Amino acid sequence: MSVRRIDERPAVKETLPLGRRLGSAGTTIADRFAAYRLTSVLAIAVVIAVVPVFFPSTYYYRVAALVYVFALAALGLNLLMGFAGQVSLGHAGFMGIGAYAVAIGPTHFGLPTWLSLFVGAALSAGVAFLVGRPILRLRGHYLAVATLGFGLLLAIVFSNEAEWTGGPDGMSVRRLVLIGWAVRGSENWYWFSGATFLVGAALALNLIDSPAGRAMRAIHDSETAARVLGIDVARTKLVVFVISAIYASVAGSYLALFNGHITPEVAGFLRSIELVAMVVLGGMGSIAGSLVGAAVLVLLPQVLTFLHEYEHLVLGLILMGVMIFLRNGIVPSIAAALKGRSS
Fold first, then answer.
1. DSSP E strands, the chain
2. What is the distance between the terminal CA atoms of the chain, rounded to a whole angstrom?
3. What is the pLDDT of residue 82?
4. Which residues pair with 182 in a beta bridge?
5. Helical (H) or strand (E) element with 273
6. What mean pLDDT comes out for the span 260-280?
7. Cys staple from 284: which of 82, 179, 225, 317, with CB 3.0 to 4.6 Å?
8. pLDDT digit string, tens, across residues 86-129
9. Parallel, antiparallel or unpaired: strands 171-172 and 261-262
10. Cβ–Cβ < 8 Å for 105, 284
11. pLDDT, tens digit (0-9, with 9 covering 90-100), for 157-210
């Protein structure tokens, strides 16, 4: 009969961190998300490259370029709403900052348009940092009203400061020039805006897979639980707010440069609501959903023009139908349906 020594302990099975645990096929969660990230970027790249094959005229290049521009702004807002769980009803204000930066910079200060674009992004980040610190302490309806007031305030400034912004009539915007090449024409803007959205999507996917991204998702589920786990909730919310403001600012700059003219409407309340609708329609917490939501709200008004005075009525009914039958948004609902069929 063998006697077991007192200091002997049963072997402890070594465990892996959450992000490195093995999946059913022997792959880690991190590896699977890396594959998903690569697949998503490649899928968006394929869409950007293939869609022009079906364009019968340059007009379609213009509409598609607008889709990518608004999708970029919706993507930034989706990071804030879909992943961090924070509501913003004044995000068009950051689009206005970016738009007027590329207009005011060359006109009043003689800056190159490309430099004005970066100045607008930096200015938006600074404003988001200063404004976000107090208002992100609010929650729910209080946060929504605070961001709404911020957006309305910026729209009023753009309308009243006529000496700098041209007032309600707006002001013209010079062309974007990069290394002696002037970006002009709908076709060039299609590729330029599409490439920018692709880069923005890749950066967003990397952010989601980072520790900051996991902290964002934890805050979305429960701020109290995230705080108990040691996450700096205030700092994380502020960081994602600043990042989303930069996305919106770049989109606003592109919109102004593409159209060649800008008015305070770019920062208006309806524009902010439109961005929120793009996120909700496409799917909160979905990168592809930002693109799909932007495509729906940009393309549908073009398709429904033959209805004349009934255009807005039919558009509203379609949007209501989508939200009733696809409650989680277009992309997540379709993905869940396909997954259910395959299983």
1. 171-172, 176-178, 181-183, 261-262
2. 54
3. 93
4. 177
5. helix 269-282
6. 93
7. 82
8. 999 999 999 999 999 999 999 999 999 999 999 999 999 999 99
9. antiparallel
10. no
11. 999 999 999 999 999 999 888 877 788 889 999 999 999 999 999 999 999 988
* Fold (CATH) for 28-338: ABC transporter involved in vitamin B12 uptake, BtuC (1.10.3470)
Q: Which two tokens stand for residue 265?
A: 């409407």
Return the amino acid letter for 35: A
Phi, psi of 284 (to 5 degrees): -70, 135
Q: What percent of the residues of the chain are helix, what percent strand, and what percent coil, each to the nearest 5?
A: 75, 5, 20
DSSP codes, 295-340: HHHHHHHHHGGGGGGGHHHHHHHHHHHHHHH-TT-HHHHHHHHHHH
214, containing H or E segment: helix 211-221
| Residue among 237, 245, 236, 272 at smallest CA distance from 138 | 237
Residues 6+ apart with CB under 8 A from 47: 291
- Give me the residue label for tokens 């003689």: 110
Cα(198)–Cα(37) distance, rounded to whole angstroms?
Answer: 12
262: which 2 tokens? 């800008």
Please report how many Cα atoms fall inside a 13 Å half-sphere around the Cα of residue 264, on the Cβ side. 19
Comparing CA positions, the residue from 263, 160, 244, 199 lying closest to residue 68 is 199
Segments making up each domain of the chain, as ranges: 28-338
Question: What kind and span of H or E run contains 116?
Answer: helix 113-135
Q: What is the secondary structure of 134-188 as a DSSP string?
A: HHTT--HHHHHHHHHHHHHHHHHHHHH-HHHH-GGG-EE-PPEEETTEEE-SHHH
| CA–CA separation, 273 and 279 (whole Å) | 10
Task: Characterize 119-134 residue by residue with b for buried, 16 or more Cβ atoms within 10 angstroms of its Cβ, and e for exposed.
Answer: bbbebbbebbeebbee
Query: Which residues, 6 or more positions from 226, have their beta carbon under 8 angstroms from its beta carbon?
Result: 215, 218, 219, 233, 236
The predicted pLDDT at position 139 comes to 87
**CA quadruple 114, 118, 243, 171: dihedral, nearest 10:** -70
* 22: DSSP letter: B
